[in-house]
Amino acid sequence: MARMTNVSLLVRPGVYTSTDQGLLVKPEQKVDIVGYTLSDEEEVIIQTKGMAPDVGNVFTVARGELTVRNVTIRQESHHPERHGLYIAQGGKCTLIDCKFCSRVSGCIAVTDPSSSVTLKKCLFNGCCGGLIVLSKAKAVVDQCQFKSTVRIGLEIRDQGFATIKDTEFSDSGRQGIVCHAFGNGFNATRCVFHNNSRHFGETEAAVMASSGKSTITDCQLSSNKGTGIIICSGGECEVRDCQVTGSKVAISVCEQGTAYIANNKLLNNRFGITIVYNMGKDVTLENNTMKSGEADVLTTGKDTEPKMIGKTHKITKDPRRENDKCLAEKLKLIQKQMKLNKFKKDDPPENLREEKHPNTVRVCPSCGLSEQSKGKEFKVCSGCRITHYCSVDCQKKDWKLHHKDTCKLFQQCKQDFVEKEQTRDSL
Question: Across 126-257, where does the E strand assignment appear?
């Protein structure tokens, strides 16, 4: 095993700009960067900037380790495939007291089963997107703030998982947190969600759990434009000891969502809990306090009624959805939408490919260089058809060290996706 190379940098206040690839933390490197400031007025800014096609991420971590303290990270290029921080192929990163700004793309992307990021006391202010966790990567978010995000504060998909505590999500254009597209879920504790879904209003939610298993505990949700929490599309979620106020719907369970909702205060919302086209999935309500404008519990009338433990609440059947024909048409639309995700067995699903996407950039997992820096399009692994390499030599090297195991994992993940879609089609 190669020896880890340690690099420590103490950076004085100022603006440090790169017009190409930014800082690349290579395999077997451990880099520690500290912004040295004596007052709140001083600031250390590290950024990439420019229109050139080879302008890259501010930081790229490939198998190495990076720790950054007290630094403002800006991604000021005009390329949607760039990030403030990109972590792949087992890279590990810790950020403390950092600030992020990226007007075009997401601030942080972490991908690969052995990659991880830990954020503590970080601020995301006015960014296009905050943090995206995918491909079985893991994230820990502690005492951070996601403010005025144009799209999503924290996005989890492709079997990623996140632990979030004591964090604020406010004024997001869409959701504060969303777990979808086969994300494994999240645990959110003592978080605050305020005035989210600014751009989409009633069609969005402060928190969306549409995949995996998630828990939301002791959180405060207030004045969110549409729904406080949506549990849908096969997602499973436990909501405990939360307070939801000032939304059209406090909690919505729909389209095969499974929910356990206990000891919450759902006050001054138009509707407390809605259960819409849930196809017989379990919804359990235990000792919740509700004071709603129109109905505490609203159902389509044809769904299985929720199981109530302790306090009971009046169930109102939505008169607009009582008709069997309306329900049948809605179920057909849901099943049709599921069929749109089908694909051939020989091709991986779109959300499991490592190809160009507004929130990703393709990096060779062996040498850590991107397509832009190499000046050519990478070749895909013929086994998993997900991971890309710049050369045959890099592919052979990575196979021995790493990809031999993950290739099988990716193929199994693809097969699970196919089987899940076939099961849905049979419903």
Answer: 129-133, 138-142, 145-147, 154-156, 161-165, 168-170, 177-179, 185-189, 192-194, 205-209, 213-217, 220-222, 227-232, 236-240, 243-245, 249-254
* Residue 310 neighbours by CB distance under 10 Å: 10
pLDDT-derived band at 396 (thresholds 50, 70, 90) equals confident
Which stretches of 87-225 are DSSP H helices?
none
**DSSP codes, 49-77:** EESSTT---SEEEESSEEEEES-EEEEEE
pLDDT of residue 349: 41
Instruction: Report the alpha-carbon distance of residue 27 to residue 5 in Å, rounded.
Output: 9
Structure tokens belonging to residue 348: 């991986």
User: Which of 157, 122, 92, 209 is CA-nearest to residue 357?
Assistant: 157
Q: Please give the Cα distance from 196 to 144 (Å, whole number).
A: 16
Contacts of 143 (CB under 8 A, 6+ apart): 120, 121, 165, 166, 167
75 vs 67: CA distance, rounded Å: 18
Identify which has the larger pLDDT, 30 or 343.
30
CA distance 395 to 385: 13
pLDDT tens digits along 39-88: 988 999 999 887 666 667 899 998 899 999 999 999 877 666 778 899 99
What is this structure's pTM? 0.76
Cβ contacts of 179 within 8 Å, gap of 6 or more: 156, 157, 162, 185, 186, 208, 209, 210, 211, 212, 214, 235
Q: Which two tokens stand for residue 235?
A: 């997602």
- pLDDT tens string 344-393: 333 444 443 433 444 345 777 777 677 766 778 888 888 877 778 888 88
Q: Using the 8-state DSSP alphabet, how is residue 400 labeled?
A: I
How big is the CA angle at 173 (ends 170 and 174), to the nearest 5 degrees? 95
Confidence band of 265 (pLDDT split at 50, 70, 90) = very high
- The residue to which tokens 């969005």 are assigned: 204
Per the CB < 8 A criterion, the answer to whether 284 and 268 are in contact is: no
pLDDT of the residue at 188: 98
Answer whether 22's CB lies under 8 Å from 58's CB.
yes
